[in-house]
């Protein structure tokens, strides 16, 4: 607070002295600049300010500073210094949420030292929670939620609102929930320096970053979607040292990098809600509270060694190579879940923590590439590249969790995970040939092989052929057309294990992949691993219609079809298409305008999501979603006079998501009712729209003093059925169960902002 008040006092003093300084200086403006102003905002919106820090309502200070002190080019000396500070605002009641400052000093061609500071904020969604924010890693319950559960199943807490006769209350506890805000801030400070000796440049540097705040997390159990703010208290340090060599034929660098991550909170003790339907009141669900440790990211350290070189074999032939080796180490244990506590009478438990015995995990990385490029004959350029990337990890089992049953029987279900090892190799050939003075043909071939040891797809090969023609058939017209065809083969390895009393745990090994206890008769392959055929075409046209009007047209269509064995489900097809014109019009030397429009559509289609119940051969059902977006923008720059300049921008976007769920499911003669199988209807469309208007005017009060005025209007409207009015839903009958959603608040906003500043150059 003292720092903020001092800054404001300095700003006011600077404003009061500006007229005197301007009067004393009649020379043209130099490279130094001070910006001082104010900004006001009409609405508080965490989503509008998600990345820019303008989350609050009200007014605040704006400031910036740039100072240069460099020797003239012909002075015989080459020393320099430059200080710059940007975005020193307080609009949201926080000092410089996106501010930055840097200082550079040195002697050109000899040495240099840089120091930097950056503040980076992220504001997440507002949400309702039954938990209070964590204090020292412990979550509590908000007022109105007292610890519930007890020595017998007949004792229910106030959250259930179910009495001993089984009558369900219609009371919704949303009013008792706390409205919380997930947000983080990173403060990053760093420095680096270099020293030049002959053909060598030696440099070193470091960056320290502290990240604090909270992120939205949920615990999924019997009462689903219980949201809470996971505390964040991270420190990250990065260090490098580098030697670079440059000569007429060879340029090379060798770099060592160190990265260290420390988490001040190894876990969070989180209460959670679970339901019990056994015991005395078998017909009536009763809600219990339990607690367990929720592991946070463990501290770790990583070491990397990187090298690169470029060598001129001949005037038009070069070799380019890079390599990287590294090791990533987990240097802190995960939190034990053995301290789990749940009330008597409730058989439910959830282990949110991981096995603390899993320490010293290590991953080793290696990679490199070698490229040869040459122009063997006039107008022909050839390029060939081979690259390899790999990762190997220890085979320590990582126990991921355990949970209980809702029917009164305690069933431990441990999940085990192993560090995946993979190797990726890629070969690429490309040739560019100028057919005529106005036409160039490019042909390319790429093949990539991927090997994984812990995956359903153990080996895949992806091939891609590409052809591109760039031509200018007539004056002022240029066209580029690109076509690509891709294929991917996939080798699967998996074993299905039916859930039994002895196979309740999922087991992974380098050669066998087993699923349980939820395994049925089908598994899914991620779309990015499945066998695939794809085609992509891109088009760009530029035409200079006249001296004042230029146009462009961009288009793209990519279609991918995925192929699976008969017992595999997954994404069956996707496509992405976009098209849009772009126009620039120069009405006069004083007025320029720009107009663009873009339409984009993305489609995803899945198959077999409910295949075990489809009696017509299986896998005949589908689920798909279609995303459509329209974006139009208009901007203009108008120099009204020698002293006055006006800039305007307007952007409008409209997006829609449509769903087509489970078309083609057959239930006839199955012996099951529709509600027992799917009972699904299409979800409503999700529509959103956005308007953004920016108007900025600059008026030169003097040769070195400019007044800036600006207005902005931003509107975002999200019509999404998933934003519930209430954060929880109580049962409507005696056999129902409590459901608690994340309770996210609709992010729609209408924000007006006005700012004014003076910029003094000296």
3D structure, described in words:
- It is a single chain.
- With 762 residues, the protein is mainly β.
- It has a domain at 527-683.
- Helix content is 4%, strand content 59%.
- The protein contains two helices and 38 strands.
- It has helices spanning 2-24, 674-677, and strands at 33-41, 58-68, 79-86, 100-107, 111-129, 131-135, 138-141, 178-197, 200-219, 226-246, 250-263, 267-276, 286-295, 300-314, 317-330, 350-351, 362-377, 380-393, 398-403, 415-417, 422-436, 439-452, 457-471, 477-492, 495-496, 514-515, 523-524, 531-544, 549-563, 568-588, 591-607, 622-639, 644-661, 686-702, 705-719, 728-729, 739-740, 749-761.
- The strands form six sheets. The chain has a 26-stranded antiparallel β-barrel.
- A hairpin with a 2-residue loop joins strand 14 (300-314) and strand 15 (317-330).
- The longest helix is centred in the N-terminal third of the chain and has 23 residues, at 2-24.
- The protein is globular.
- The N terminus is likely disordered.
What distinguishing features does this structure have?
single chain; 4% helix; 3-stranded antiparallel β-sheet; 762 residues
- Integer-rounded radius of gyration: 32 Å
**Mean pLDDT reading:** 77
Oligomeric nature of the chains: single chain
**Largest sheet report:** 26 strands, antiparallel, barrel
Distance, first to last CA: 31 Å
Please tally the β strands and state the result. 38
**Number of separate helices:** 2
Structural class: mainly beta
* Range of strand content: over 45%
**Poorly predicted regions:** 1-29, 146-174, 276-287, 337-353, 400-412, 495-522, 609-620, 666-679, 725-739
Helicity, as a percent range: under 10%
Shape: globular
């Amino acid at each position: 607070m003292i720092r903020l008040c001092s800054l404001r006092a300095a700003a006011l003093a600077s404003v009061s002295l500006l007229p005197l300084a301007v009067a004393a200086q009649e020379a043209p403006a130099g490279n130094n600049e001070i910006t001082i102003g104010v900004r006001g905002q009409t609405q508080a919106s965490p989503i509008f300010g998600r990345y820019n820090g303008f989350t609050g309502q009200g007014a605040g200070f704006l400031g910036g500073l740039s100072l240069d002190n460099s020797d003239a080019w012909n002075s015989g000396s080459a020393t320099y210094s430059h200080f710059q500070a940007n975005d020193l605002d307080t609009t949201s009641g926080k000092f410089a949420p996106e501010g930055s400052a840097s200082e550079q000093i040195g002697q050109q061609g000899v040495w240099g030292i840089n120091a930097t500071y950056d503040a980076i904020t992220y504001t997440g969604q507002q949400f309702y929670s039954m938990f209070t924010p964590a204090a020292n890693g412990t979550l509590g319950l908000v007022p109105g939620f007292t610890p519930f559960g007890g020595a017998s199943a007949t004792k229910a807490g106030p959250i259930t609102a179910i009495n001993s006769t089984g009558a369900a209350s219609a009371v919704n506890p949303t009013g008792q929930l706390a409205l919380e805000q997930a947000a983080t801030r990173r403060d990053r400070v760093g420095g680096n320096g270099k020293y030049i000796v002959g053909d060598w440049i030696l440099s070193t540097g470091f960056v320290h970053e502290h990240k604090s705040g909270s992120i939205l997390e949920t615990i999924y159990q019997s009462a689903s979607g219980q949201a809470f703010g996971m505390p964040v208290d991270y420190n990250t340090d990065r260090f490098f040292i580098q030697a670079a060599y440059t000569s007429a034929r060879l340029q090379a660098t060798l770099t060592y990098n160190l990265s260290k991550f420390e988490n001040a909170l190894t876990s969070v003790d989180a209460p959670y809600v679970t339901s019990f339907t056994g015991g005395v009141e078998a017909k009536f669900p009763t809600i219990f509270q339990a607690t367990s440790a929720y592991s946070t990211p463990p501290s770790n350290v990583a070491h990397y060694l990187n090298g690169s070189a470029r060598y001129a074999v001949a005037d038009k032939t070069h070799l380019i190579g890079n390599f990287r080796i590294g090791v990533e180490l987990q240097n802190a244990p995960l939190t034990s879940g053995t301290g789990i506590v749940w009330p008597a009478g409730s058989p439910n438990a959830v282990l949110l923590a991981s096995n603390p015995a899993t320490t010293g995990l290590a991953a080793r990385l290696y990679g490199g590439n070698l490229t040869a490029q040459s122009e063997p004959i006039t107008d022909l350029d050839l390029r060939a590249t081979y690259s390899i990337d790999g990762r190997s990890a220890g085979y320590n089992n990582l126990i991921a969790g355990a949970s209980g049953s809702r029917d009164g029987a305690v069933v431990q279900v441990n999940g085990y995970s192993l560090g995946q090892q993979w190797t990726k190799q890629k070969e690429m050939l490309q040739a560019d040939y100028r057919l005529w003075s106005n036409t160039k043909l490019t042909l390319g071939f790429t093949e990539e092989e991927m090997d994984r040891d812990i995956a359903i797809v153990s080996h895949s090969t992806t091939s891609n052929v590409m052809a591109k023609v760039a031509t200018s058939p007539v004056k002022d017209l240029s066209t580029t057309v690109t076509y690509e065809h891709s294929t991917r083969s996939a080798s699967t390895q998996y074993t299905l294990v039916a859930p039994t009393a002895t196979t309740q745990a999922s087991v992974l090994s380098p050669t066998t992949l087993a699923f349980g206890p939820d395994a049925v008769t089908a598994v899914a392959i991620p779309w990015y691993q499945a066998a695939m055929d794809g085609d992509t075409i891109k088009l760009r046209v530029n035409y200079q219609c006249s001296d004042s009007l230029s146009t462009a047209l961009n288009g793209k269509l990519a279609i991918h079809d995925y192929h699976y064995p008969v017992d595999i489900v997954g994404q069956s097809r996707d496509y992405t298409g976009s098209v849009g014109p772009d126009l620039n019009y120069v009405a006069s030397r004083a007025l320029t305008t720009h107009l663009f429009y873009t339409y984009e559509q993305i489609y995803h289609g899945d198959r077999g999501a409910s295949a075990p119940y489809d009696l017509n051969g299986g896998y005949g059902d589908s689920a798909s979603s279609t995303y459509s977006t329209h974006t139009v923008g208009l901007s203009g720059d108008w120099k009204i006079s020698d002293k006055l300049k006006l800039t305007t921008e307007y952007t409008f976007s409209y997006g829609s998501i449509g769903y087509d769920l489970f078309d083609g499911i057959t239930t006839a003669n199955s012996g099951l009712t529709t509600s027992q199988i799917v009972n699904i209807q299409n979800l409503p469309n999700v529509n959103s729209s956005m308007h953004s208007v920016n108007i900025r005017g600059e008026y030169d009060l003097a040769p070195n003093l400019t007044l800036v005025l600006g207005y902005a209007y931003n509107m975002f409207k999200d019509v999404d059925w998933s934003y519930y009015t209430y954060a929880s839903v109580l049962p409507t009958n005696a056999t129902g169960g409590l459901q608690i959603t994340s309770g996210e608040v609709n992010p729609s906003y209408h924000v007006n902002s006005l700012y004014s500043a003076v910029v003094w150059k000296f």
